[in-house]
Design a protein that fits this description.
Rossmann fold; 4-stranded parallel beta sheet; 33% helix; 13 strands; alpha/beta; 442 residues; 13 helices; 2 domains
């Protein structure tokens, strides 16, 4: 997506040294920079990250998102900024309050050009995003490039483009049932290696929308050879003792697959309890991107050995990090002190936003930068790769990627399992499966 990026950066540096702004072809090279929309001055582009961080019982929940956005901004500014301007980041902690999230959106509408890395919970009304007025007073909306999107109204917001798109096909949200697109590539691998499996699936219990975000994934896995033999709702704040009957059921029923749709701490508690009860029937302990975190191994120790974790990004943790294979991944690892699955998504959301800004500038120059212009560009980016850090993803069309890398914890390290070659993704067309479910109340 960033062809000619480094050539452009050299040009930025040269023009900046001469006291000139950078413009697109056809524009006047000495055109003075202007305030073109809310959050854009002659010198800066302000973006806001709204994320739940100070959360009782889950302290620092989405801190990785904040770290990722701030690191991306620092990297971007070190390499010439965007549209001849530096990027400034505001952070608002929404905690677990829908009111605080809405207040943050309202404030960002007035002082920021866009939202990067939005990660809020327990909010259903996103009208403040779509009704936000621009500098000219038009209800253009504020461009939003989120990381966590559990609510339907957020998933289908016309101004929101999640870097890791949800399963719901928003064109069917008013239909009964709705259509969901789910990546089942890892499931196909497990079944090929082990035959049909009998699974235990744990859903988030604290929010219906959070649970419903997992239902299509688990259902599609059930259709692909992992029988949904045991299902349980579990609170994110549940102590390990709440996992005692779950581990007992897995053992008693001889289940061969187990997966929690909650944060990595849930997987750690499940694995520790399974060790205490000597559960030995499970062939596949599974988890997705939220478990690709050093905390899984630090907190889980030997109890999480053999844990599978799949993701749409190249491996970036521990001794098996592939920063040497991808320049942008190397940049990410240089600028983010404690990388995790949330920070790399936030960094990637910043890259996506940067691509849109660069496209606007290429067409109309630095002073063509408006919210409307960015939103016009967004749907056209259908093969985003974050400069090769992630598999091709139709972010503009809000379709989940069919690409993945599967890792497994071995001797206390995340080790690439498939595809075997470093720098590669499994992107088979058969990895994405469409299913129909009725999960939206009228």
């Amino acid at each position: 997506m960033r062809r000619g990026r480094w050539i452009a950066l050299v040009a930025v540096a040269a023009l900046a040294a001469a006291g000139m702004s950078v413009t697109a072809a056809g524009a006047q090279e000495d055109e003075p920079l202007e305030a073109t929309d809310k959050g854009v001055t002659a010198d800066t582009i302000t973006v806001t990250v709204v994320a739940a961080v100070d959360v009782p019982g889950a302290q620092g929940l989405f801190q990785g998102v904040v770290d990722g956005v701030e690191a991306w901004a620092e990297y971007t500014n070190d390499n010439g900024g965007l549209a001849g301007r530096d990027v400034e980041v505001n952070f608002v902690d929404s905690r677990l309050s829908g009111d605080e999230a809405r207040n943050a959106f309202i404030q960002a509408c007035e002082d920021s050009f866009a939202l990067i890395g939005t990660s809020v919970l327990f909010l259903q009304n996103f009208d403040d995003l779509t009704a936000c007025t621009d500098q000219a007073g038009a209800a253009t909306g504020i461009p939003d490039f989120p990381v966590v999107v559990t609510e339907v109204n957020h998933q289908c917001s016309p101004v929101s483009f999640a870097i890791n798109p949800p399963a719901l096909d928003c064109d069917t949200r008013d239909q009964n049932p709705q259509t969901y697109r789910v990546s089942t590539g890892p499931t196909q691998y497990y079944v090929k290696q082990n035959g049909d499996l009998q699974g235990a699936f744990l859903y988030p219990a604290d929010s219906l929308s959070a649970k419903n975000s997992q239902v299509p994934i688990f259902t599609a896995q059930g259709d692909q050879g992992i029988e949904m033999a045991f299902e349980q709702d579990v609170s994110a704040l549940a102590p390990q003792s709440d996992y005692t009957p779950i581990a007992a059921a897995i053992s008693q029923e001889g289940l061969t697959y187990a997966k929690s749709g909650l944060d990595y701490a849930s997987t750690v508690k499940l694995r520790k309890e399974a060790t205490l009860q000597s559960v030995n029937s499970v062939e596949v302990w599974d988890c997705s991107l939220q478990c690709y975190d050093t905390g899984l191994i630090e907190d889980g120790g030997s109890d999480v050995e053999d844990q599978y974790v799949y993701m749409p990004f190249l491996p970036f943790l521990g001794e098996n990090a592939e920063g040497q294979d991808n320049e942008m991944l190397g940049n990410f690892l240089e600028f983010v002190d404690e990388p995790d699955g949330f920070s790399i998504q936030a960094w990637s959301a910043g890259l996506y936003f940067g691509d849109l800004v660069n496209a606007v500038v290429e067409e109309g120059g630095n002073n063509a930068l408006t919210r409307a212009a960015v939103l016009e560009q967004a749907p056209g980016v259908t093969d985003f790769t974050a400069d090769g850090m992630m598999g091709k993803t139709n972010v503009g069309g809000r379709q989940p990627s069919r690409c993945f890398v599967l890792t497994q914890v071995r001797d206390g390290e995340f080790v690439r399992v498939t595809p075997k070659n470093e720098g590669k993704f499994n992107c088979k067309k058969s990895n994405v499966r469409e299913i129909e479910l009725d999960l939206i109340d009228e």
